[in-house]
Design a protein that fits this description.
Blueprint: H1 4-9, H2 11-30, H3 35-54, H4 57-63, E1 69-71, E2 76-78, H5 80-106, H6 114-129, H7 134-152, H8 159-190, H9 195-204, H10 210-226, H11 235-242, H12 245-252, H13 254-268, H14 275-296, H15 303-324, H16 326-353, E3 354-356, E4 359-360, H17 370-373, H18 375-389, H19 395-409, H20 413-439, E5 446-448, H21 452-467, H22 472-486
Antiparallel strand pairs: 1-2, 3-4, 3-5
Helix pairs in contact: 2-3, 2-6, 3-5, 3-6, 5-6, 5-12, 5-13, 5-16, 6-7, 6-13, 7-8, 8-10, 8-11, 10-13, 11-12, 11-15, 12-16, 14-15, 14-20, 15-16, 15-19, 15-20, 16-18, 16-19, 16-21, 16-22, 18-20, 18-21, 19-20
């Protein structure tokens, strides 16, 4: 039976759903000429949802302070993990909305429905990170994916954008089918879709039955596609390159974070007793992602394609934390992703400001001489690239340090060594961009159209990467407490 307390606890989701209904009506009646008003309305609903996420005291008072809480017949979970994930999803999505306004204003293609699609995807992600049942998992995943299909092909006048949308629709539909196929095997054997019940049944299983193992492999393959881990990465370079730049930034941050949280929940809750079965597969995904991401990025001339391979390599580093497991391994994953999201937002802010002959550009060579045309954005970009490369004492260094330390502590020293070597190789293509910005002359026709949003996001991200060293304990302790909620005692 659904109680009033259930609705109080899903206040963020209710606010986002109400926001979708309100803003889609606004977009329909106000039209593209009032797109800015719709953007502001979406940001307002994000702020309200953020308040509901970050200030749950009213909920704990109402329920007697008992967390985690299970809602709707234990299909939905409210805990520290979901709140942490929802917070970063809102931060990333709000930044994307601000950057999108700058980008679409440049190409004179402002559409009122664009921020509504972003909010719809965020609503799906909220259900994904709070899923405690395969049915809720699939509903959230598909709600997010439906919005992403449209966003990938949003720039209808661009053949590349249409191609990106088509490729993502086809491959994502296949991955969804694979996911459902795997879930049917698991449900067919264990007779439940609930995570807690599945964990109890798996714990009693002496030997992994073949049908359940096949189902788990299919589920992991589908989620590996969502996080673009090798060999399920084939969509990422083309979709990142063809989609509009702010959409690429969105793909690389919030949806990937939500999918990773979902993967971690599955591995350390219902599938925790089967770690001996999935650990080797995750090791392969990690090593393959790090190696391919590091080497494939060396040959790229398009920065969005380069960032796609960088993203694949970073998925490999994140999977090291998953392999290490335990509270410290998962702490490293959460800390790494939080830093990575802010880092990428700053990089895409600079990219969106760059244009050539009054058109957006994504060629690395067009960053030539940026230090001379805009020293502020060049400095921000340099800091962010150094952080992404893992140069101390920036935040990106600590992110990788926590991951590699967790691996060594858990006995996966060889994996940590491969990660360090891959990081050194990938540092070349980050340093190459810095060299072009500071030691090359500006390209003819290259210019910048930065505004307050671009400057503010790039500056905030750079300051965050530098300032992390001043209070690392604050963020590491927070991620450690959140990681404890994932593990079943």
């Amino acid at each position: 039976m659904i109680e009033a307390s259930d609705f109080l606890l899903i206040a963020p989701e209710i606010l986002l759903f109400a926001g979708v209904l309100v803003t889609v009506v606004m977009a329909a009646f106000m039209g593209d000429k009032r797109a800015k008003t719709v953007n502001i309305a979406v940001l307002l609903f994000f702020a309200l949802a953020g308040y509901a996420v970050f200030f749950p005291n009213r909920v704990s008072d109402f329920m007697g302070g008992m967390f985690p809480l299970f809602l709707f017949n234990e299909q939905f979970i409210e805990d520290a993990v979901s709140r942490f994930a929802k917070g970063f999803i809102l931060i990333a999505s709000s930044g994307i909305i601000l950057l999108s306004w700058t980008y679409f204003k440049q190409i004179n293609n402002q559409k009122a429905e664009y921020p509504v699609l972003i909010m719809l995807a965020v609503l799906g992600m909220f259900f994904m990170v709070s899923a405690n049942d395969f049915i809720m998992l699939y509903a959230g995943l598909e709600l997010q994916s439906l919005a992403l299909y449209i966003l990938a092909a949003f720039n209808r006048s661009s053949a590349k954008s249409s191609e990106a949308g088509l490729k993502y629709v086809i491959l994502s539909a296949i991955s969804s089918g694979v996911l459902l196929y795997g879930l049917s095997f698991i449900y067919g054997y264990f007779g439940t879709t609930n995570f807690a019940e599945l964990y109890a049944l798996v714990s009693q299983t002496q030997e992994m039955p073949m049908i359940a193992a096949v189902g788990m492999v299919f589920v992991l393959a589908a989620l590996a596609f969502k996080i673009s881990a090798v060999p399920f990465h084939m969509w990422a370079p083309d979709v990142y390159t063809g989609a509009p730049s702010p959409v690429t930034a969105f793909f690389a941050t919030a949806p990937k974070f939500a999918a990773f949280i979902l993967l971690v929940r599955l591995l350390f809750q219902p599938f925790d007793g089967l770690s001996q079965n999935w650990i080797q597969a995750i090791i392969f995904l990690s090593v393959a992602s790090m190696v391919l991401g590091a080497f494939a990025g060396l040959a790229q001339s398009n920065i969005k394609r380069l960032l796609a391979y960088s993203s694949i390599a970073n998925v490999g580093y994140l999977l090291i934390g998953v392999i290490a497991g335990g509270q410290y391994g998962l702490q490293a994953v959460l800390l790494y992703f939080g830093i990575y999201i802010i880092n990428l937002l700053g990089i895409f802010a600079v990219l969106i400001a760059l244009n050539k002959n009054d058109k957006p550009t994504d060629r690395i060579e067009d960053f030539s001489g940026l230090s001379k045309t805009n020293p502020y954005l060049a400095f921000c970009m340099m800091i962010l690239l150094f952080s992404l490369a893992g140069i101390p004492p920036l935040a990106g260094f600590f992110a990788k340090y926590f991951v590699f330390f967790a691996a060594v502590k858990s006995g996966y020293t060889a994996l940590a060594v491969i990660g360090v070597l891959s990081s050194v190789i990938s540092a070349y293509y980050y340093l190459r961009i810095i060299r072009i910005m500071y030691f090359s002359e500006p390209m003819e026709g290259a210019a910048l159209r930065s505004d307050f949003a671009v400057n503010a996001i790039a500056g905030f991200a750079a300051i965050a990467m530098i300032g992390f060293i001043l209070m690392p304990e604050l963020f590491s302790d927070l991620s450690l407490r959140v990681a404890a909620d994932i593990l079943i005692e």
